[in-house]
Specification:
Layout (H helix, E strand, L loop, with lengths): L1 E3 L14 E3 L3 H5 L8 E2 L13 E7 L8 H11 E10 L8 H6 L8 H4 L7 E4 L2 E2 L20 H5 L2 H6 L1 H17 L1 H5 L8 E2 L3 E7 L1
Length: about 210
């Protein structure tokens, strides 16, 4: 299996033979001892021959690629059996209070359209548990106070993408809405839910 946009290797299966691809030297340096071997390359130009791997995967990385469509075609090219991508469907942005009420610019086209270069794929819903241990943006759907913590936001790529001014405005509005009860009034019962479908999808394309 090849893991494209592998970062520090947090999402790599430990029971499979994995080759990681990561263009950032900073991320590659943070991979722990024993992690899968990592190649310095970009998704849009994978240095592997056709059907070199049983499967190709990308977890929450394709929105960082310079050319998403080209990268997806590359995943399909090097995979013999299937391509698996985990990504948020931005057309469902109104399901997440962060994008609905604070960062409407995160809304975007349907994920199915963006995944078209895979040549047809199944989109499987991935509801998130309330106590999700991952630190990505969607994980905090029931724990809004966490997003007031600068250390938490430092691990969310979206905060870097929107810029410091937009991030500061978001934090200020959220802090005010939490303090005066506006957030809870807008999201009744959300804190008590065990899980929530905020639009995260597992995209599976079979060869």
């Amino acid at each position: 299996m090849v893991n494209v946009g592998a970062g520090t290797g947090s999402y790599e299966p430990s029971d499979l033979d994995v080759t990681a691809v990561e263009p950032s030297s900073v991320m590659r340096a943070q991979r722990p001892p024993g992690a899968a071997p990592c190649v310095d390359a970009r998704a849009e130009a994978l240095p592997f021959h056709d059907e070199a791997f049983d499967a190709a995967m990308a977890v929450l990385s394709d929105h960082h690629w310079e050319d998403r469509a080209a990268g997806l075609r590359e995943l399909r090219r090097v995979a013999r059996r299937r391509v698996v991508v985990m990504q948020w469907d931005q057309s469902l942005a109104d399901r997440l209070w962060i994008s609905r009420d604070y960062l409407p610019g995160l809304a975007g086209p349907p994920l199915r359209e963006l995944m078209a270069p895979l040549g047809g794929a199944e989109l499987r819903p991935l509801p998130l548990p309330r106590d999700c241990r991952d630190g990505f943006l969607l994980a905090w759907w029931a724990r809004p106070e966490a997003l007031l913590d600068a250390d938490v936001r430092a691990n969310i790529s979206v905060c870097a993408l929107i810029g410091r001014e937009a991030e500061a405005a978001f934090v200020a509005r959220l802090a005010g809405d939490l303090a005066d009860g506006t957030w809870d009034a807008r999201n009744p019962g959300l804190r008590e839910r065990d899980e929530h479908d905020v639009g995260l999808r597992l995209v599976v394309a079979e060869r």
